[in-house]
Structures are given as C-alpha cells and as structure tokens.
C-alpha cells in the first residue's frame, strides 16, 4: 500500500534563501499529521511542495503513489490556505454554490446531477452550515468561511485535507468546534495535515507530528515527540542554559 504523501530528501530555496533543507517524511492513510515549527521555518513552503504548488530543487514527492509532477487526481485533495480566512479574493458566490463547485472536479460545470447536488447538501450538513447556504462567501466570518471551504473539499470527496493555520482570526468557541469537526472527519477516514502554531492543539489532536525549522527535527508519533527534545531544539531554546545542573 502506498502512502498518501511521500516526501524524500526534498530541498527548496527562494533564490539564495533555503526554506526547506533535505526533508523526508511520509503521511499514511488515516493520519492526522501536525506540521509545526517557528515562524518562517518552512511549514507553508513544505505544504505547497507537497501539493505541487511549488517544485522542489531536489528530492521527490509522491501523492497517492503518483509523482506530484504528473498528479492528476486533484479532487482527492482539499486545501484550505492561510488566505482562506481573509475576505479578499473570495468570489461573490453563495456558500451553496461554492460547495457545489467541489463537484466540478468530477463532472462539468453545467452537468451537475441531482446526486451531485445531494452530495453538496450533505457536505453543508456535515460541517453544520446549512443555515449559511444562501449567504455569500465573501460576507462570512473567518470561521464560517473555513467551514465553507471544508464543505467544498468534502463535496469533492477529498481523501486528504491540507490546512494552513485554519483558525487564525477565529474566536475560541468556533475554534474548538472547528477542531472537533476535524477530529470527526479524521475518524471517518480522511487524512489530515494541519499547520498550527498552537502546539497544545496539535499534541491533543494529531497522531503524528512533523517538527521543522528548515530541517526536519522530528517526524513520528505524538507521544515520542512530547518525550523528545525536538520542540526546544527546533524552536531554538536548547542547550546548556535550559538544561544545566549544578
Ligand atoms: P512558515 O510557514 O513556517 O512561517 P514559510 O514557508 O512561509 O514559513 O517561509 C519559510 C522561509 O521562506 C521564510 O524565511 C520566508 O521569509 C521565506 N519565504 C516564504 N515565501 C517566500 C517567497 N515567496 N519569496 C521569498 N522568500 C519566501
């Protein structure tokens, strides 16, 4: 069985600036992988590499056993970018239309069947935004917009959800509900990769952790991460000051 994501020895630089240095990691079906690291540590870059939005300078990346260069199953991936919470750039479509767009990957724009519409309605229900179905996406709050994009990914029957700091600008209650939703989607078999700056959220929810600071400091299960020094090493608070004994 192949991995959902298989990254081998991947490096990437913006000009002279190395953002990802020789990183290897895999994401298996059903994983909830938390991708953490300090600001500017290459998390978004690594996510973009894994989704084929950037090409690595070296190394190889496979999605669902297929090289990312020739990957042609985009409907299997739902991506909620960091910009998704901001109002700018969203089309003035309704939430229902936005979610139905998730079906366009399967059928042409003008060919939505009753079954496609039913799947879209189900997705609205799953993420609990039926009450927002007729509102325009660009008039939603950040948290509501995140849900609309998740519903669109569900409508496209994505197997992998990639989320880049999805709760920035979302209030605490909605944030909690949002992470419960992610848990239930993961329990239903959807593989999740989540960039999140709140490490407590990640260690509570994720079964696997990748901790990077340009290089990879940890890749493995959450328990072994919590017991390791990877966090302090990657975040630069290592060494004699913290650990010295008299
Ligand atoms: P993170 O998501 O962990 O905050 P990023 O992947 O966004 O980190 O950035 C990694 C490094 O690459 C940072 O030093 C950042 O300044 C740099 N970087 C990110 N995007 C660009 C870009 N488009 N052009 C040049 N440098 C970039």
TrEMBL record:
Its EC number is 7.6.2.8. It is an enzyme of class 7 (translocase). InterPro entries: AAA+_ATPase (IPR003593), ABC_transporter-like_ATP-bd (IPR003439), Metal_Ion_Import_ABC (IPR050153), P-loop_NTPase (IPR027417). The keyword Manganese does not apply. It comes from the Archaea. Pfam families: ABC_tran. Keywords: ATP-binding, Nucleotide-binding, Transport. Residues 5-239 form the ABC transporter domain. It catalyses: an R-cob(III)alamin(out) + ATP + H2O = an R-cob(III)alamin(in) + ADP + phosphate + H(+). One of its GO terms (molecular function) is ATP binding. Required for corrinoid utilization. Probably part of the ABC transporter complex BtuCDF involved in cobalamin (vitamin B12) import. Probably responsible for energy coupling to the transport system. Belongs to the ABC transporter superfamily. The complex is composed of two ATP-binding proteins (BtuD), two transmembrane proteins (BtuC) and a solute-binding protein (BtuF). PANTHER family: IRON TRANSPORT SYSTEM ATP-BINDING PROTEIN HI_0361-RELATED (PTHR42734:SF5), METAL TRANSPORT SYSTEM ATP-BINDING PROTEIN TM_0124-RELATED (PTHR42734). This is Cobalamin import ATP-binding protein BtuD.
